[in-house]
Target: A-kinase anchor protein 17A
Amino acid sequence: MSIQVCRDPSDAVALYLPQRLYLKSFAKLNISVQLPTHKVHGKSISNWDLMEKLRKMIQPDSFSVLKVTKHSSEVIRFEAELENREKLDRVSSRLEDRIVQLNDYPDPLKVKVTEAKSDFPSRHVWDSFFRDATDMDEMKPGERPDTVHIANLPIRWFVHERDLNEDSPPSENLFKKVFEKFGAIRQVDVPAADPFRMQMKSSMRGITVPPQDSQVYFEGYIQFSEYVSFVRCMDALRGRKLLRKRDDIAEWCNIHVDFDKSKHMTDAAVKRRSIVRERLVARQNAKEEEERKEKERISKREAKERQKYERTELEKLEKMREREERRKKKQLAKLMERDNVDLNSRVAEERRKLLKEQKKLQAIRLLEELFKRIELRPDLRPNGQKPERYYAAGERSARARIVDRLKQQQEDVLDAQRNYLKSALDGRIVIRSALETKKPKRNSSLSSDSSMEEARHKRIKSERLTTPERDMHYKGETLNIYIKMFFAEWVLCYVTLYIFTWWPKYEKRT
Model:
């Protein structure tokens, strides 16, 4: 029943060339070895030794199959096969009435050879079967000799190359094309190609292949339109094996051929299988639809649970963030209370220092301008001459350097004071932002992430950076300081002008 390697495919007849399928004849022999009537104590006959002796007797020919079919006290029977039927007579003559002498067995053994009787049905067998059957109507398809049942067909030999894999079922279309050579085919049935066949009743399946062989072999039913085609197919398959040629090797296997006796291909049986298949398909579709809906329900439930979990996690994170902000606010409050930090007073102090430094710088610039104007006034030049004490080049340059250095120092001090004021204002903004954070309104729905993002961005209160000019506009105290500063500068300018105007006259008079 297994697939074997054929060493001599020379007499193979083409069956279907696209799949490289052929039919090849073979010969089967029954070889009997007669045992002596009296028993030899302590001695036994080895079947393996007998088989080796038989193989040597037919050389240079060889058996393709040689196996023991019966071992009794009177006879040992072997079944042998030859790859070529033309070798049958030659091998039979070499074995007939030969004497086999075994080394460990004293008595000689005689060999008898006969051709094995084929179990292939003849025309007389199927004619008598349908003639004598009372439940058969030869006028109906499937109840007359028109259907061939072939078993033990290799699945991989009836699968297209493009569809070949481990789980590919045999192709029903390819199976039909292979046997169209013998005539018009009415219909075929391959149970292995029907995925719902095993769900039907055993009487409807039409399966005779053992379950352990169903992964390698299959069976099929071929119903011909004419009786002549049926006879032609049966005659072509009689005494043949199915062979398939490959690029470097030829394989063949024994197939079991018989005519259908179970009315498997009648119209009623085919229709009944079709109805059952439709019901099974509908049931399968309903089951798949139910599974799909169940998967959708599960996915929706999981999505809801996931969203609920995400909302819970977001709420936890929001609460943690609020607790962290409250903790930071408390820490800042404790820090301010512990260190006695009064930011407002510090800002006011820094602003006053800044105004003072600005006032000094403006006074220096004013003095510089006054010195320049005094040098250019003609009334300070008596008799058109420049006093050497006041108008020497060295003194003028030295005085200019002193003024520039003093002005630069005052500008540096002013810039530093501005930085101090800015840092104080920034510190106040940060602390105000931490201490004056408003608690966001809790959205009960929590439906969208965008609203949560907006609430998250709106939680921190922003404060604009104030400047001294802006504070002067709103604070009367700062405005009064500026008025006083302007008045003091005006007085200082007047006094300085008076000194530089009258001082030379006073010095000349003295």
Observations:
- The first helix runs from residue 47 to 57.
- The chain has 13 helices and 14 strands.
- The two ends are 151 Å apart (CA to CA).
- Residues 16-115 form a domain with the Alpha-Beta Plaits fold (CATH 3.30.70.330).
